[in-house]
């Protein structure tokens, strides 16, 4: 689905927990997530640390969205 949306001219960021799968499906902008059960967070963290983690992932995804890419790129 990521490739089809991009084919329509809309940039997409694929936030995922297993990067090799995203590479296999052909996603162009890939942002690694935290873990399979909690891709965008970590319940073991304090409330403040959790907020900081989520904010950093969201900012990384936005940065990836605005970055021109030529082919698959993983934003670490």
List its traits:
76 residues, alpha/beta, three-stranded parallel β-sheet, 3 helices, 43% helix
Structure description:
The chain is an alpha/beta fold and 76 residues long. It has one domain (2-74). 43% of the residues lie in helices and 13% in strands. A 3-stranded parallel β-sheet has the order 1-2-3, with helices on both faces. The two termini are 22 Å apart. The mean pLDDT is 95.
State the gist of this model.
The chain has helices at residues 2-7, 19-25, 47-66, and strands at residues 13-16, 29-32, 73-74. It has 76 residues and is an alpha/beta fold.
Structural topology:
Elements: H1 2-7, E1 13-16, H2 19-25, E2 29-32, H3 47-66, E3 73-74
Parallel strand pairs: 1-2, 2-3
The H/E string reads HEHEHE
Secondary structure category: alpha/beta
Amino-to-carboxy terminus distance = 22 Å
Strand order of the largest sheet: 1-2-3
**Share of helical residues:** 40-55%
H/I helix tally:
3
> What is the number of E strands?
3
Overall domain count: 1
**Given the C-alpha coordinates, what overall shape results?**
elongated
